[in-house]
């Protein structure tokens, strides 16, 4: 009996046969490798950038994924996420295939759910892949060593590795909101390029709001702020407040947008293609 | 070709008062039609007449502004369950260009369930694409995509097939093959609704037609009834056409007189035509040639879809008024 699982499996199959999937995953692999290469090549007196964990880049490879998480929030991870989330409905319009799949034996909500799950899966894979490559490349460059937490305590290498992966999972909370925004723009614009660029623009604009003078009070509720929630895990004791806030703030961004995307998708007329 | 269904069985397609408006534009302006079980039903109209929009509403792809569509008694806007036993495509069939034909069909079969995956090989054989099934659809010609569209429809083991311009863009051999395929499917008991503006194709394979003009049905019924309603048209050449025309005008039962390029045309039944031939001889206008013209669907189509604005559709099966003029040759 076909259902959401059927759509999900075939959406993943389709993603495996599209170039954009490999562009996104390729970026997730190449960026940490280039980052480690840059560490390797930089001159001694340039060491230390004044940001969290920057002093430890040469002492522990486990600092590499955390620094990448810190900077990747600006555009890299939103872009990688948007590459698929922004395309997953729009590509059906581009290929004219909505009429093909809407006239089979699956309800529209099942198609929507399968596609949304596939876009989310891709985002999860991209983040975990990036983190894993960063851990491996960083460890090869600087060693699999203990890490100093943001509170100054030393965390053993195995415990630091665990924290890195939990941080990656926490990072997926705002990424999920980005997926929802991408899905909405994909449904609304019906144009892949517009949806991908639009998702990135929304992400950047929210970050810009955060640096505007006089709008500091909004900072805790901006989507961009939630990309730093994982840092609570690197404090002793663990600071859960930013993580809990990230969960509900991202839900406020994500639920209305995916709800709107859903309504647009199931109610739309398929007049073209 | 038409199989009588039990009175309690809903017809494959029943459309009532179907309207689709886009702002000020009325794309479909109140279509009523009934496709009976076993019909090969031609849905005819010029480009822009609203055929494709109607088909999209029949398949549940767009919401009607007014009216209703029932497929075997079910509303396709309520659930895709209404499409059980129904398949087809509107405009050109579409697929994922980066996947090969077989993968496209495997995906659609998975979406269909109900034994569809087991029908892939048979469907590919039917449309003669088995040898190209591993090629990416992106490299397929228009004709191959059309055939793949039929294969995708056959996966659903349909009792009703809706095809929108299936022969458009095909070369003559492709058109012939498509016509043969549709006829073969109809012979297997499938009900087919064929939207087209290729009149020879429709005349060749369909038993009933609806002719749509500017979003309205101007005729619905048997092709044979449509032709009968048009009357028999005669072609006449005499030694004195002026005198012959006067005789024709005065002759009871001779109607729709036309004069063009050295001959006269008129409609009449056999008795009136015989009486006319005698009157012509008596008047001194000797007959050089007089022959009945075969009225084609094309003649009737142009008669119904060109000229004055459309009038409300006659009741199903009601012949339209006889052609009022000879079509320019």
Q: How would the global form of chain B be characterised? A: elongated
Question: End-to-end span of chain B in angstroms?
Answer: 33 Å
Beta-strand content estimate of chain B: 25-35%
Order of neighbouring strands in the sheet with most strands of chain A = 1-2
Arrangement of strands in the largest sheet of chain B? 5-6-7-3-8-9
CATH classification class of the domain at 13-85 and 158-227 in chain B = Alpha Beta
H/I helix tally of chain B:
10
The helix count of chain A comes to: 11
Rg of chain B over CA atoms, rounded to whole Å, is: 23 Å
Note the beta-strand portion of chain A: under 5%
**What's the N-to-C terminus distance of chain A?**
28 Å
Give the largest interface. Answer: A-B, 27 and 35 residues
Q: What's the architecture of the domain at 13-85 and 158-227 in chain B, going by CATH? A: 3-Layer(aba) Sandwich
Low-pLDDT runs of 5+ residues of chain B are: 310-329
Q: From the helix content, strand content and strand pairing of chain B, which structural class follows?
A: alpha/beta
The overall average pLDDT of chain B, rounded, is 85
Elements of chain B, N to C (H/E) = EEEHEEHHHEHEHEEHEHEEHEH
